[in-house]
Design brief:
The complex is a heterodimer of chains A (about 290) and B (about 325).
Chain A lengths: L19 H31 L4 H6 L11 H9 L2 H32 L5 H13 L2 H14 L6 H26 L2 H9 L4 H12 L1 H17 L2 H6 L8 H11 L6 H32 L4
Chain B lengths: L20 H32 L17 H8 L1 H34 L13 H13 L2 H12 L4 H8 L17 H26 L3 H9 L4 H12 L1 H17 L1 H7 L12 H10 L4 H28 L10
Helix pairs in contact in B: 1-13, 3-7, 3-10, 4-7, 5-11, 7-10, 10-13, 12-13
The chains are: A mainly alpha (about 290), B mainly alpha (about 325).
């Protein structure tokens, strides 16, 4: 489909500034991309608009502007439907898990990348296996492991499982990063009398900052979006995180749902990540290329 | 699919260290702690699941009898499970194909789709398209599902647009409630969520190709289509392979989209997927042995899928041995 009919028209001999076929191809391409952008943006705009409407208004006309632009839906989503508490839960769980997985992942990647010891390769491949298998295979036993530890339906239980499942990805990404740091710097730190601990925290870790930033963004998105782990391992309503609260709310009472509040809750869930995205847009898009896929 | 396995070969040769307190405590915390968490919460549940799949355990009772492969035999006689497996396989074929074709097309337009004179360059306004298309990737999947479930409802946005365009048969049509459209409407949502990410990925890959290569084929007289087929795609095929495996694995899971769009498996189970059926079998019916067997089947299909993509890529001339992906 790329450039349907252009090539015959412009052989490489002297060309006019902008050939007719160029214009056609250009317009078709722009049309396609604009259409796609609209398909992406319209639902989001519609959600934003609907978040200010009453349920009745939403069903009366899908396009109409809300009668009033007030925050009623946001207040009821935040208070009455407890999205405020879920928001706080999510921030706690994602915050702790993110810090922990970054620290543990960096430490583990550092050791695997820079220290030769028997079994290091086996550990590396074990982690690779952890990345390949579907979480679903683990979900049933995980439920009982957490129950036996008294961590089922608790925030610490969620945090530790988030950390465990985000660990392989973090280690892989940072492994490559620590590998590229020059040996001499580490040696110099030893010569200066730094301990292993100090060498890592004061010398090697700061050098891995760019890699850490990329992984942190990916992990943030992944953890904020986490769905299956909380659904299976956290059935206590007061410990709900946003994603599972959204699902529960959407499916709760069929058509009795307060749709205005539902859309407001969607906006509450999306806005933090959109803000992060807009701020870190460049780094994020840059790290897509050097990150996940290598 | 982390970074390469080949990197591991050039691990620095290091002198044997003395077992000082510093070194031992360092190893215990830096390697032991993360590894313990990983083994307890990731590896051990995987291993246990394989064992449970060979028992008749119901989860909450202490009794557990070893019944061999009975669960698997039952599974393949269960027509609902077979249906869900079929749906998964359909998703794993269609979703990557559509997602990656669109992503590749857009990435090509944005990087090298510009005018055919002067320097090889992309279309104008390309960074706008790139940023906007990436939006869905940062929206939680469950929210994407809920949002589209609302768009698809009989009185939702889609039918509103269609009826205002004069397509009256769309009035009150339940996109997710009709056997003919449920799975396709679902596939569209997943594609919607993923195109932007892979577009950005392919843009990076295409930008990694030296500009001279494109200049050279242009001088040789190749048009846009020819350039895409003979230069762009072959040169980034390893990225395409990796992306194919990623999207495919995601499509084999698909739980979160289904939970939002079709929580009960869709009309006559037309959108039921294995992960959903597994979840129901485990946590609603309490058949944990049976559910674990489903998990094992899902894992095996996932591995077979990845192996198939590697094999196809190799047979068609790819050089990636899996190390770099």
């Amino acid at each position: 489909m790329v450039g349907v009919e252009p090539e015959i028209a412009q052989r490489p001999t002297r060309r006019v500034k902008t050939s007719g076929s160029d214009k056609t191809v250009g317009s078709i391409s722009h049309a396609m991309l604009i259409l796609w952008s609209a398909v992406v943006v319209l639902p989001l705009l519609w959600t934003f608009m609907s978040s200010f409407k009453t349920t009745k208004e939403i069903f009366a006309s899908p396009f109409g502007l809300p009668a009033t632009w007030d925050l009623t839906n946001y207040l009821s989503a935040w208070n009455q439907y407890s999205f405020g508490r879920m928001f706080v839960n999510t921030v706690i769980v994602v915050g702790f898990a993110l810090v922990l997985v970054m620290v543990l992942g960096a430490m583990c990647a550092y050791v695997l990348a820079r220290f030769a010891f028997p079994g290091s390769r086996a550990i590396y491949y074990l982690m690779l296996a952890g990345l390949m298998f579907p979480v679903f295979l683990a979900i049933v036993p995980l439920f009982f492991i957490l129950r036996n530890m008294g961590l089922l339906n608790t925030l610490p239980g969620l945090i530790i499982t988030y950390v465990a499942f985000a660990l392989p990805f973090t280690v892989f990404f940072l492994f490559a990063f620590f590998k590229t740091l020059p040996d001499e710097i580490q040696e110099a730190a030893y010569v200066d009398g730094a301990s292993e601990w100090r060498t890592f925290f004061q010398v090697m870790l700061p050098m891995a900052k760019p890699g850490m930033a990329s992984v942190a963004i990916f992990n943030f998105l992944g953890l904020w979006n986490q769905f299956i782990l909380p659904i299976a391992l956290n059935t206590d309503q007061s410990n709900y995180v946003l994603s599972q609260g959204m699902a529960a709310f959407a499916s709760s009472a069929g058509y009795a749902v307060n749709f205005g509040a539902l859309f407001a809750a969607v906006i509450i869930t999306v806005v933090p990540v959109l803000i992060i995205y807009v701020i870190f847009q460049r780094q994020l898009q840059g790290s897509v290329s050097q990150g996940t896929m290598k | 699919m982390g970074p390469s396995g080949s990197l591991i070969q050039k691990a620095p040769r290091r002198r044997r260290r003395k077992l000082t307190f510093d070194y031992v405590s360092f190893m215990a915390v830096f390697l032991g702690l993360p590894l313990a968490i990983f083994l307890i919460f990731v590896i051990s549940p995987f291993a246990q699941a394989v064992y449970y799949s060979l028992t008749d355990w119901t989860g909450f009772s202490p009794e557990m009898n070893f019944i061999g492969i009975d669960n698997y035999v039952k599974l393949f006689q269960n027509s609902t499970f077979i249906t869900s497996m079929g749906n998964n396989i359909l998703l794993a074929i269609i979703v990557p194909l559509v997602t990656l074709s669109i992503a590749l097309l857009f990435a090509t337009l944005i990087t090298v789709g510009g005018p055919s004179h002067g320097q090889v360059r992309g279309l104008g306004a390309s960074s706008f398209y790139r940023v906007v298309s990436f939006f869905p990737y940062v929206i939680p999947a469950i929210v994407i599902g809920i949002l589209w479930a609302q768009i698809y409802t009989p009185s939702g946005l889609l039918n509103g647009i269609l009826t205002s365009l004069g397509i009256d048969s769309a009035e009150g049509f339940a996109w997710l409630g009709d056997e003919r459209t449920a799975i396709w409407a679902t596939i569209f949502v997943i594609v919607w969520g993923f195109v932007g990410f892979y577009m950005v990925l392919f843009i990076a890959a295409i930008k990694g190709i030296p500009a001279e290569t494109f200049e050279a084929v242009r001088i040789d007289g190749a048009g846009r289509f020819r350039t895409a087929i003979s230069i762009t795609i072959p040169l980034i095929r390893d990225n395409i392979q990796t992306a194919y495996i990623y999207v495919g694995i995601m499509a084999l899971d698909a739980f979160v989209y289904m939970a939002a769009l079709n929580p009960f498996g869709g009309p006559s189970n037309t959108t039921l997927v294995m992960s959903q059926y597994l979840f129901r079998t485990a946590f609603t019916k309490g058949q944990f042995g049976q559910a674990s067997a489903m998990g094992v089947v899902l894992a095996v299909i996932t591995l077979l899928f990845a192996a198939a993509v590697f094999t196809v890529n190799r047979l068609t001339g790819g050089k990636d041995d899996g190390g770099r992906s």
